[in-house]
Structure formats: structure tokens, C-alpha cells
Amino acid sequence: MSELVDIKTVVEDGTARSAKSTSVDIDDGFDPAVIKALKRKIDWKLVPPLAALYAISLIDRNNLGLAGEAGMTAELKLNIDNRYSHAVVAFFPPYVALELFSNIGMRRVGARWWLPSAVVVWSLCLFGTAFVKNWQGLTAFRAILGMAEATLFPGTVYLLSCWYPRREIATRMTAFFVAGSACAAWSSLLAYGLSKIHTGSTLYGWRWIYLGESLLSLVVAIPCYWLIVDFPSSHRCKFLSEEEKRIVATRIERDRADSEPDGLTITKVAKYAADLKLWAFAYCYCSTTLASYAMSYFSPRIIASMGFKGVDLYLLLVPPAVLAICWGLPMARWSDKTGCRLPFMILNSVIAMTGLSLFAFLPVHATAGRYFGIFIATAGLHCNIPLTSSASQTAIRGQAKRAYTSALVVGFGGVGGIIAPFVFRQKDSPRYFFGVKFVLISQGIAIAVCLVLGAWFRHCNRLAERGRKIIEEHPEFRYQI
Questions:
Q1: Are 318 and 188 in contact (CB under 8 A)?
Q2: Strand pairing partners for 318?
Q3: Least confident among 295-304, 386-395, 404-413
Q4: CB 393 within 8 A of CB 405
Q5: CB-CB contact of 210 with 67 (8 Å)
Q6: Which of 88, 178, 237, 349 could lock 230 by a disulfide, CB 3.0 to 4.6 Å apart?
Q7: What is the pLDDT of residues 312-360, one digit of tens each?
Q8: Which of 158, 164, 162 is nearest to 40 (CA)?
Q9: Which chain regions cross the lipid bilayer (predicted)?
């Protein structure tokens, strides 16, 4: 193997190794076969367990709509005074509030212990949900579920961004996200099977959905205590040799010079909070998740309004999520290869808006066209969620800032979840015209934000090339547009 680059030299010699990934070969001096094998090793060790946990989180988070169709709405009287919407919203305030604290805790305790333990907690929460007697109990358990799930998605974005250079991050985040989403989509069939169980006088089918998925969460979580890997700089990361760790660190240093961890302080948080580009990414993410949550919670009702019921209803929820894989992975690879982020976000917003318009505004009898709208809306939204989170991570430096950014951006995704049930109102069912119009406007604003952000990034890059501006406290760092 070629001689490894000393990391301290990389850090100190800003002219020899820059964070300007567009002109620096981060693999210079390494055997291509070694790099390829190392990336494959990291990919298979890192992404599948995280995708499995994310699939479980989506199953557990989104089973509210499926359980509602299986009798929960009637039994708990959720169709009175927006009780269903209150149960949906209860998940998100603790989910948003605890994300940054979760990232700090994960850094100290280690991802291997932090993430699976959260899944164990929410599996117990689901078990308790199966025995609630009223809508207040359901709402309380939804809030506890939000506390537990505050760990996973922001923690995963933070962890992945610390492992991969900028030109590789979108592909990995998209693989993690769409694989988890596709697996979760099949849970509709599991929910249908569980909903047919009826034992005793109180264990109706919807309760078995929660009992079965509680057990499934536990089964997935326990092996992850051994499968999840930690941050590359951590002494707890043992699946790589010291030589392989040095290669990983060297590639990160050449790309953006932040392989070494730095602590998150109140002063840093205040400084990061003043960075307007992070709020721009947060808004774009919020706009996308607003539509995505609305789709997940209300798709069963929309498809039911097309005349489908029973097993057909549950089966029709699966294909759109599978299509998202076929669309999302090529988009992410192209984004990484070209170093373009914002144009792909704009493209997927346009696709999502087209799909939302089709299933909302086509005539009731145009079943095929409306269902096609769900297909392409899901593809655009499921592609944009990982693209937006990865784009926000390519525009920053520093591991502390990564922890803050992932918490802020994903936290705003929770804000989208809070808004969704209030704009997709019970009285507007099953077409939800008001909610769809609201989402279309928010997506249009997100496109405008991307255009402004792109113009600002180009301006900053030009100033940096002339030596008149330092971006992200590194003289050779450049934004990927």
C-alpha cells in the first residue's frame, strides 16, 4: 500500500491538502482497490443496521393511520373534535425539543449503545399503547414515542456525515432512507394481518398491530447492540484497523478538514444559530416532511376514497415506496458525482408538487391518475428528504456543527409533522384540498429559497476564489451548489 498521509500534516498544511473537494483528489496516493474495498466494508457495516432501525421507526411512527383504519378511530372516538390530529401532533414537540441533546448524548455514550436503547424504549411504549382505553392515553404514549425517536434520524445523519466525504454522503443517506422507507411500506401488509386477530373482549385488531410491532421493534433492536458502529475517531470503533482509520481520517481532512471531534458549547450553538443558510435548509426540510407526513398519515384514507378497501388498500401503499428507491438512488449518485445539490432539490420539489396536484385535483372517478399522483409525489418527497439533509451537511465544517445542523434540520422536519394534521383537516377528508394547497405553496417557497441559496453560494465562492472571503473558517472550502 502507498504510504499513508499523516493527519496532523494534513490539518496544518492548508495549501497542500484543502477542503476544496472540487479540485483535490481525496484518494491521491492510495491504492484504488484498497479504497474501494474500504468503502464497501464501511457501507455494509454502517448503512444496513441504520436502515433497519429507521424502518422500524417509520413502522412505529406511522402505524397510527393503519390502526385507525383497523378500528382504533371508532373505539377511541378519534373522529370527534380533531382528536386524531391531537394524537398525531403529540409525537412531535418532544421529538423536536430533544434532538440536539440526543446528539450530544450519543457522542458521549456511543452510537452502538444509544440508538438501539432508544428503540427498546419505544418498543415498550408501543406495548403500552396496545392497552390504552381512551384518546388521552393514546396521546400520552405518542408523546413518549416522540421522546424516544428523537435519537434516531438526527443521530444517523450526524453519524453518516462524520464517516463520508461530501461527494459520497448523499448516496449513503439516500440508501439508508429509501431502504428503510421501502421496508416500512411492507408493514402495511403486516398491519393488515395483525388487524384480523381478535381475542377476548378488548383485544381488537388495531391493538394487535401495536403488540406485533412492539415485538418486531425489540427483535430488530437487540442485534443492533452488536451491529451498530461508532464514530470513526472513537476508541469504540473496532471493526477497522488503525491503518484503515487513518485512511478514513485522511480522506475527510482532504475534503473538509474536520476529522477530529470538537465539543459543542453554548457559545458555538449561539454562533451556529446565526448562520442563515442552516435555517434555509431547515425550512426546505420542513416543507418536504410536511408533505411526507401528510402522505403517510392520510394516504390510507385517500386510497380508501378511491373505492379500495381491505387487503387491496394495504397492498396499494407498497408500490409508491418501492418506486422511491428506483428514483432516489440514481438521483443521489448523480448529485454526489456532479457535486450539485440544490438543482436536484428543486427538481424533486417540482415532481412532488405535480403528484400532489394529480391525486388532489383530478376527478374522483380518475382512480388511475390519482393513484399515479401518489406514486410520483412519494418519489419526489422520499428523494428530497435525504438530499436536503445531506446538502446541509456538505455546506458546513466541524463535527460540533454537524451535530447542531442535523438536530436543527431534522427538528424542523418535526415541525412539518406538527403542521400536517392541522392543514390536512378532518373536515376536508378525503380530498384534503386545503392541505394540498398549503403544501403546494410551501414547496413553491422552498424552490425560491433554493434559488436564493444557490445565488448566495456562487457569490461566496467567487469572493473566496479572489481571496476576499473565508468560507466555514477554511481558506479553501467551497460550497457545493
A1: yes
A2: none
A3: 295-304
A4: yes
A5: yes
A6: 237
A7: 777 787 888 788 888 889 999 999 999 999 999 999 999 999 998 988 8
A8: 164
A9: 113-132, 144-164, 176-195, 207-228, 278-298, 313-332, 344-365, 371-391, 403-424, 436-457
- How many residues are given for the chain? 481
Contact (Cβ atoms closer than 8 angstroms) between residue 149 and residue 95:
yes
pLDDT, tens digit, 9 for 90 and up, residues 289-301: 998 887 776 677 7
The cell for 97 is: 425539543
Within 8 A by CB and 6+ apart from 431, the residues are 305, 360
- For residues 299 and 370, the answer to whether their CB atoms sit within 8 Å is no
Residues 6 or more apart whose CB falls under 8 angstroms from that of 314 comprise 66, 188, 189, 191, 192
With left for phi above 0 and alpha for psi between -120 and 50, is residue 2 left, alpha or beta?
beta
Integer Cα distance of 298 and 155 in angstroms: 27
Residue with cell 444496513: 48
pTM of this prediction? 0.88
- What is 272-297 written as a DSSP string? HHT-HHHHHHHHHHHHHHHHHHHHHH
**Fold adopted by 10-465:** Growth Hormone; Chain: A; (1.20.1250)
Q: CA dist 178 to 267, 326, 405, Å?
A: 36, 9, 21
Task: Name residues whose C-beta falls within 8 Å of residue 89's C-beta, 6 or more positions apart in sequence.
Answer: 417, 418, 421, 422
**Ramachandran angles phi, psi of 181, nearest 5°:** -65, -40
